[in-house]
Amino acid sequence: MTAAQANSYNDYVTYSGTSMATPFIAGTIALMLESNPSLSPEEIKNNVLESSEDWGKESKDIDYGAGRLQAYKAIMNAGNQRGNLPATPNHTQINGRLQSTRDRDLYQYRVESLDYPVSLTLILDNETSDFDLYVYDSNGYLVDYSYTTERQENVSFVPKSIDDYVVEIYSYRGKGAYYLDISGG
Known about the structure:
Blueprint: E1 2-4, E2 12-14, H1 18-35, H2 41-51, H3 71-78, E3 90-98, E4 104-111, E5 118-124, E6 130-136, E7 142-146, E8 152-157, E9 163-173, E10 176-184
Antiparallel strand pairs: 1-2, 3-10, 4-9, 5-8, 5-10, 6-7, 6-9
């Protein structure tokens, strides 16, 4: 998840795990109960799950759980309210496969709005492989990168201009399937 960075005015941090997700879920549940105090724990759970947007592998998975929390939708459903959902960043999902060490895939990503930071998450199916993630601007300059030895790579940046970016997934070691998630302007 991407959240505001503590002690900053416009920086963001991206981490994964329950420590990042828990405050968002807890706040959503509190607002659901404010909207409808008679909700049972089972109704709350079902509402959160049914209103979530499935990301990652189809259905519930280890990387994205039930998907992206749609808090506003869950709160509206809890109180039987109607209305339009707020605008959210564009979201792109790409499934791919690298065939061998030093293989690479390139994708073009167009930033059309400066209203949101851009966040990329690369998840590998094969835990013994080591893929790296790079983002370049239209002039070929490296914007950001991640090359850990973990099965997940994360890159986030605040775009300074509307531009075409190139996303590179590179196999430092191994082969296998991957999932790339891009959210942003």
